[in-house]
Every structure is written in structure tokens, then in C-alpha cells.
Amino acid sequence: MKLAMVGLGKMGMNMARRLLQKGHAVAAYNRTQGKVDEIVKEGATGVYALSELVQKVDPPRIVWMMLPAGDPVDQTVHQLSLILSEGDMVIDGGNSYYKDDIRREPFLAEKGIVYMDAGVSGGIWGLKIGYCLMIGGKESAYSAIEPIFKSLAPDGGYLYCGPSGAGHFVKMVHNGIEYGMMQAYAEGFDILDRSPYSKALDYGSLCHLWNSGSVIRSWLLELAEEAFSKDARLSQIKGYVEDSGEGRWTVHQAVDMSVAAPVIALSLFSRFRSRQEDSFGDKVLAALRHEFGGHAVKTE
User: Fold this and answer.
1) How many CB atoms lie within 10 A of CB 173?
2) pLDDT of 300
3) Active site residue 41
4) Catalytic site residue 99?
């Protein structure tokens, strides 16, 4: 099939590469020309202005966006609405909020343009092993472009999840679960690192051990083993952890639906905590312990 890839960041670039490798024709656009030049050398058709896209892709056109959530997607959807034709399709494969999909779908439908959402997991490894795809939108549209999903994903790695917003909703929950899993591993290694056995332990070997038949084996542990092989005690990494939004959305959704999700919520709050050195909250805790129990405090 032929499609346009709009956005050639780490994910979009490798997705375009995988599609080319699977025999699809890809027209590629990015805000900066260098990324377009790079993928053109690998067989893509270069698109150097969004307005050129309609000349580079035959109708009915398929446009897959891999852009940062929020305004960049809204702006691009608006621009596409002005140049695409009835029967064309727009797919948002970024980490968008599912309620934005529900808003965008009827906006494009008024112009006869089909909108779909695709939650994508796989990170920088997706080029090699494939991407896990969670797809929302009209089921007939999903069926029409299923060969694209099949090429991007490993065997069994894509699923139609329901109407507009369903793909990004499932991806949101997926990322919330990811937050909790990562936090559990982080806390376990923190306990190990503070224990009297820490000097004798090789954390990379421990990850390998736990991935050899234990109940906590996972791809995340494989990645942890890789990280420890590069830096045995992670001495070059600062313990500052960002969040890209999905964990917050998952917690908000749990609150809205009165669903208890303490692990995911606390894992999100732990990320907030990582960004504070010598936080005022910790000073309050120390002061309270001193006041009620006479516990010693460390002074600057």
C-alpha cells in the first residue's frame, strides 16, 4: 500500500523504515528537511511541505501522523482538513489523549475524511521486532488498511479495540500499567542497593537470572540488564524521571470512574518526587519526626 508518514522522530522514522522494508510505498514529511532527506535515501518519496502531500500520494490517501500530543496534532489535522479529499484517511499514531480523538473524528467526518487512532508501543526496538498496535475508529476502515498494521506489528501484535478513541484509551491504560511495573522494579533494586549484599551483587546478572524462568521476567528486565551492562551502578544517570502524560491521564480516568488504582497513582507521584532534591516535603517530615519524637535531623 502507499501512505504518507507525517513526523519523522524516533518512532515515525523507524516506522517509515519498517514499512519500506515490508514493500509499502512511503511518502515522508517532517518539519525539518534533514530527516526527509535521510529517509529518501532509503527509498521514501520526499515531501517538503505538507501542501505537497496531495500530489505525492494517490487518492484515497492514507496519512499516518507520528507527532507530539496536543497542539501539534490539532494544527496538523486542521491543515490536512484543508488539503485532503473525501475518502482520504488520517491516522494519529502518537500518544494522544483519547478524548481528543473523539473530538477530531467528527471534525474530519464533516469533510468526508476518515479519522483513526492507533496506540503504538515498541519504542526504538520496534524497527527490529515490530510495534504493538492498539487501533480505534471505524471497523470498516481498519479492515481496509489492515496490511499496514500487519507489516508494522509482529505476529499477533495488532488489535482492533473499538470505535474512535478506543486505541488511545487502551494505550493510555497500557502506559499506566507500565508506570507501575517500572516503579516496582525500581523499588526492588533500591532495596537491594541499600542492603549489606549490594557490593557482591552484579545487577545485570541478576536481571538475567530473573528473566530465566522467574515469575517477574519481562522485556523491561531485559532492558534493565542492557542498562546495567553499560553502567553497572548507573553512576552516570541522574534519578530524575519525566512523564509524557499517559500516566496522569490513566489516574484521572480512574478517579472519574471511581476505580481504585493505587499502584499506578503512586508510581506517577514517585516520578514527581524524583524531580525534587531535598524537597520541602521531606524537610517537613524530618521536622515533624523531630518534634513528636525527638528524632535527630540533619542540618545544612
Assistant:
1) 20
2) 64
3) no
4) no
